Every structure is written in C-alpha cells, then in structure tokens.
Amino acid sequence: MKKGNVLVGQSGGPTAVINSSLAGVFKTAMDRGFHKVYGMRYGIQGFLDEQYVDLSDYIKNELDLELLKRTPSAFLGTCRFKLPAIHEDKEIYERIFELLQKMDIEVFVYIGGNDSMDTIKKLSDYAILTGATQRFIGCPKTIDNDLALTDHTPGYGSAAKYIGTSTKEIIRDCLGFSYKKKNVTIIEVMGRNAGWLTGATALSKGEDCDGPDMIYLPEVVFDVEKFTNQVERLLKKKDVVVVAVSEGIKNKEGTYICQLTAGSDSTDAFGHIQMTGTASYLANYIHEKLGCKTRAVEFSTLQRAASHLASRIDVNEAFMVGGAAIKAADEGTSGVMVVIDRLSDDPYQSSTGVYDVHRIANGEKFVPREWINKEGNYVTNEFISYVKPLIQGDYAPMLVDGLPRHLTMNATGYKDVYGK
Amino acid sequence: MKKGNVLVGQSGGPTAVINSSLAGVFKTAMDRGFHKVYGMRYGIQGFLDEQYVDLSDYIKNELDLELLKRTPSAFLGTCRFKLPAIHEDKEIYERIFELLQKMDIEVFVYIGGNDSMDTIKKLSDYAILTGATQRFIGCPKTIDNDLALTDHTPGYGSAAKYIGTSTKEIIRDCLGFSYKKKNVTIIEVMGRNAGWLTGATALSKGEDCDGPDMIYLPEVVFDVEKFTNQVERLLKKKDVVVVAVSEGIKNKEGTYICQLTAGSDSTDAFGHIQMTGTASYLANYIHEKLGCKTRAVEFSTLQRAASHLASRIDVNEAFMVGGAAIKAADEGTSGVMVVIDRLSDDPYQSSTGVYDVHRIANGEKFVPREWINKEGNYVTNEFISYVKPLIQGDYAPMLVDGLPRHLTMNATGYKDVYGK
Predict the structure, then answer these.
(1) pTM for the full model?
(2) Quick one: closest CA in B to A209, which residue?
(3) Cβ B396–A400 below 8 Å, yes or no?
(4) DSSP character for A254?
(5) Closest Cα partner for A38 from A107, A94, A85, A93?
(6) What is the ipTM of this complex?
(7) Is the CB of residue A243 less than 8 Å from the CB of residue A213?
(8) pLDDT of A366 strictly over 90
(9) Which domains does chain B have, with CATH numbers?
(10) How far is A294 from chain B (nearest CA, A)?
(11) Is the pLDDT score of A381 beyond 50?
(12) Among residues A49, A106, B312, B367, which is most buried (max CB within 10 A)?
C-alpha cells in the first residue's frame, strides 16, 4: 500500500539538538517509504496559516542531514501556541484536519515540551472523536528536562554539558584573578520550576576543579539572609566563592527572587513569568551586605543554543527519538509520546519506548528532594550519576572559515541594509 | 656556560590562551638548557610576597604541556599591580632585584597587556640604571587586542571565535522563535575603549547567517535616540533584530551608556571604570520606547575563558610568542615585547619580532575609523579580512568524563564543605 505524507513541527523553546530529532524524523520517514515529509513553519501556529515546507527541498543529501544535526534552535521555527479545548473551539480543529486531509498527511509529529504534548493529546483525542485516521506522535524536547515518564529529554544533555563546561571555565577565571581580593560570582541558570539545569553546574566538580561552592535549585525554598550568612562564612575561609542559582528560586513567601528587583514581572503567552535578574539581584545584595566584589553571570539563551558544545549522547538520542516517532506511527500507534528508557548506567545504554500522551501532558518532573543535600544547597552524588552519562562525547561542529556551519532556510531574506 | 633560571609571570585579565604562552616559555626554556623555570604566583604582586613555584613540579610531561595549552585563565594566577615610578619607591625595586639574584634568575618574562608592559619597561630601566644583568621580556596577551605595534595579540583570536560563534547561535535562536512577534536582542561585548571584540560579532555573517543588524564600537560616539530610530526602522522590515554593542560605548557628552543606569561607577585598581549593564540599559530603553520584547545578553567572562572553543591559530601563536620571548632573552635581548608580524593574509602566515617596550607601554590600539562604516554602525570588509585568519581551526579540548580537562595546581585546597 502506498504511504502518504508526514508532517512534522517544532514547538516551544529551542535546544541545541531539536534539529537532530527533525533529522531523525526525516530520515526514518524516507527510509520507511513515506512519500513526503512536510515541515510546519513555526509549529501549529504557522501551520494554521498554511505555512509549511517540503523538507526534501532543504535536506538534499547526507551532508545536509549532518549539518542539520549540528544546527541549534529550531530549523522550522517554533511557536508558543496552545490549542483551545475541543469543546471550546471546534472550528480550529476542523481547519487543522481539513489541511491534513488536503496534504495527505498520515503522520503528525510534534517535537516539543509539556505544552506541545498537550497539542498531541488534543489532536489525537479529536481524531478519535471524529474517526480520523491520522496518527499523532509527540517527540520530547526540552533543555529543562521536566517531562514526566521519560528518563530524560533530548536537549538536556547538551545544555548540561554547556553549563558544566562554562561553570568550570568561569571558576577557573575567578581563581586566576583573585590575589588578596575576595570575590563572589553568582551564576544564573535556566529552569523555572525544575533544577535539572542548575544542578548540572556540579558537573564542573572533579579532579581539576572544586565546582561551585553552593547550588540552589527551585525545588527548595531560598532564604536570602541564610544565603548571605553562608557566603560570609565561606569568605572567611577562601577568597573566591562561586554560587549557582536557578532563575526560578523563590523565598518562603513564594516570591521569585528575581521579582524582588523592581519592574520584572511580565508574562509570556502561557502566563509563565519571564525570569531574569536573579543573579544580579543577589550579587548586588551580597555586595551591599558584605562589601566584597561580586559578579553576576547569566548563561542566558547561550545555554540552549550552544550546539558547538553538544553532547554526542544527546545528539544521537535526539535523532533516535525522531526515528522512533516515525516507527511508532508506521506501526499504527497514535496519541503517544516517545520516551527514553535508561537500560543501564555503566556502560550507559538507552532505548526508546512510547507512553500514552494523556499520562504525560502538563505534568512537570522535578529533581527529587533526596537528590538535593539536607541543607538544600548542593546536589548529591545520585544526581551526578544520573546526569553524567548524558553529557558524554562531543559532536564536533563542521567549521567553515573558522565558525560552525549550520543548515538554514535563509529565514529572513533580509540583506544589505546599513552598509552590511 | 651553565645557564641560570627563568622567572615567568602572568598579569591582568585572563584569556583562553595565556597558558599556551606559559607552555611556550617553559618548553623553550627547557629546550635551550635553562636550569629551572619558576612561575610567580599572582604576578609581580605575589612575587613580592615570595610566592612562586617550580613549574617542573606541575608540567611533568608532554601531556601536561598539552593540557596547559588547553587550560583557560591564568595557571599561575594574575594580579593588577602597577609598579611605582623608580624615583618614587626605589625600595620595591631593590627588593625585586634582591629576590631575582637570590633565585639566580637570568630571564624575567611577563605575559600581559598594556599595564604589564609598563612593568617590563620599569624593571629593564632599573636594570640599566643599576647595571643588573637580568633580561626582561614582555609577552603580549589580551583579548582586547589593544596593544600597539603587534599585528594582534594572543587571546584575541579565541575570544573573537567565541564571540562570532555565540553570536551566530544567538541569532539562530532568535530566528527560530519569532513567529508574529517582534523581538530585539542586544548583545554586550567586552572592550572598554577598543572595539576589536565587538566587531568580531560580524564574523557570524556568512552564507548561513545574516549576522547582527548593527554593531556599535566604542570608537564612535553613540546616540541613543538615533539608535532607537534605527531599531524602529528595522522592525518595520523584519521581526528579529539583533544588535551588538561594546560595553564601552559613550554618548556625545562622553558618558558611558552603562553609567546611565543608576549605581554603576565603581573603579578597579588602575582607576578603570567597571563596565556592565550597557545591553540591559538599551534593552529596557527600547522596550519602553517601542514596546517590543527585548533581551539583553552579556558574554561576560565567558568570552575570555572559553578555551573549549579556542582558535588553533591563536593557541599556536600564543605558544610561539612564549618561545620567542625565551629565544630573544637567550640571545641577549632585554626591555622588549615580543610582537606578531603578519606576513601574509592568504595563506595566513605570521612570525614573531621584538620591539623596544618603551614604544609600546600604555599606548592603546583602536579599530581604525575606516574599518567602521560611514554610519558608524557596522565594521567593513577590511575588518573582517583582518580578523578572519585569527579564528581558524580548533584546538579540541581533551574531554574527561564529558568535560574539558584542565591542568591546575589545586589553587584553593578547599574541599568537603556544605556536603559537597
């Protein structure tokens, strides 16, 4: 029987390896005899405007595929767009399924995080309600690693590797420049509610580096006064103090530390508070209280875009879940998210499975309290054992003229303005 | 004739390759039959406290040497310590030369920037005045690339490579996440008075990336209003605007933009103003004026510490100038700085020379006005042709357990506090 087409989209915050999943979807779909692989531009939001491309126009050979695996951010563009409940707005569903039918789509793959799995759930529910035959598969993606049921998410390992490496380089920088001067550096790491990324700063600890002095995850209530006292105590013993904090730490009143700075409470399309400024608030606070030199470092979007420092395990697993999504759909499955199961830690082995997306959507996975020390200011060895296999190996960028080359579709078409 | 010992120190802000110069000094000194290579801890400041080490205690083999070349920040530690004029405080010079004699030092190498070359000048002047026979050689080092007479400085190429790569990854991130939303990203790059680093953001421009929309160097007066109008005009044509600014841009009144934010005018030991917050000031300003979403990204100390992304040309040249310093001293030269001469652009070739340190000290090298476009908001192709050869090739980190391994002397000796 002749196979139809595949439609794939990317959603939510970009990662260093989300395009490796896209590459996996494309390659497996081609290998399994699907006719075309269409890519939604800017996720479901762009698709509703009939914005999509034929991926074979861009991925013409194995080299393109390898470049795509090394390209950060979303090749297709993403959106933050939440589908309404089916009973609230049937029209939007009718519109989507009309387009799917028109394009002869058999398989719909959405690569994203919690919010994207909600999209898969609703679309597959609608298909069941209406007897539509398209299959809907979710592909996990988020640097935050906060998706339930999967051992970890593609994107997390590379972000963790970047965070561990950069923390180590920053600590080295601080130590090299510290004679007879006390200085405190506060590193701010992404992770609104889950501390997986912030905990990864502990990866810098090893034979050649002491790691950060303290690490604060959003899972534990943050006490500014207690923190200040701890820094003061540390400064009596050593000149250089480096602390890692999550952007999402809150005090016991439930107020984000970053909100203690005036004018920082804008929200995004999902009602999430925009986070930034935690490190700079604490650096100013410590400077005022203790008088020492302080510095705030925010890893900012660099931590999710640094494909030049991607983990090989992560790139390969991202590719694998993309392929597994097509395989599952090809075997008739729908309404599931592909998950990664850890088979063994040492040697590290993993495989893919699938879970009913109803069990996954909107459930956040936090760092277990027992993986954080009693004082609430460091991660335990269990945490390190969990993350270490995920940062192994590199996926060397292809350097052209000294910089990593990416695969792009020349998104802006904008050139030669301002004497460029 | 039996040779004496070498004393080497590192000074000023660390770079990704300052230790490669240290490795060059060590190796060439050993190869040329010097007895011992001592390293000052924390530059001349630590040395005055008799803090030094025998480098052969740490560099035991070729592997250690290779690790040292890959270790960011200053292996020996640095200081910011300016020697007084000789007539102001003879005692400090007497103390230094007494130590040099006691340690049988024949050659004194100081790896640093403008301020460090001042140290070499004063010490070699004092040697001439007193008939001391030690030779004093300066080894250039600074990410800022603001040293006169040398074509460029070791440290600049790797910082430029990091800045170009990260800018490209940030632009990609912005583009992937922009559907029906206008957003402006302001990237802040180091460089107090010279725009060499900020200009390197233009390296991201190429076949697969449009590069930043505008680039503002400190060499040109910055006009906040004009800048806002240009951003507004760009936003009419495109959704994603990315701008790079130097931390040191000033308005026509001569006020640093970062000082327009309240409470940011602390100074360092040399009376330099501490810079930070330029991007965040402009991001807030644009957000208020134009209402669009804005983001400030500071490369912070990451840009000088990212040895994981070092340029091979830079690592090798840093090693080469370290070796050339020893060679010059061994041949009887003193009171000079080693410089890099560019022999050819394509294929790129360079060699070392030496210049009288009196001609170099305290003179800053700026980006020539003709390498900045007429509007003052981008660099020209001449700038790109200058910097491109310096970022070529990689010097792959040695990954141990997923992270780059460094050579260290376990500077803190501080362990097992707070449940680590």
Answers:
(1) 0.94
(2) B410
(3) no
(4) S
(5) A107
(6) 0.93
(7) yes
(8) yes
(9) 5-154+309-362 (3.40.50.450), 159-305 (3.40.50.460)
(10) 12
(11) yes
(12) B367
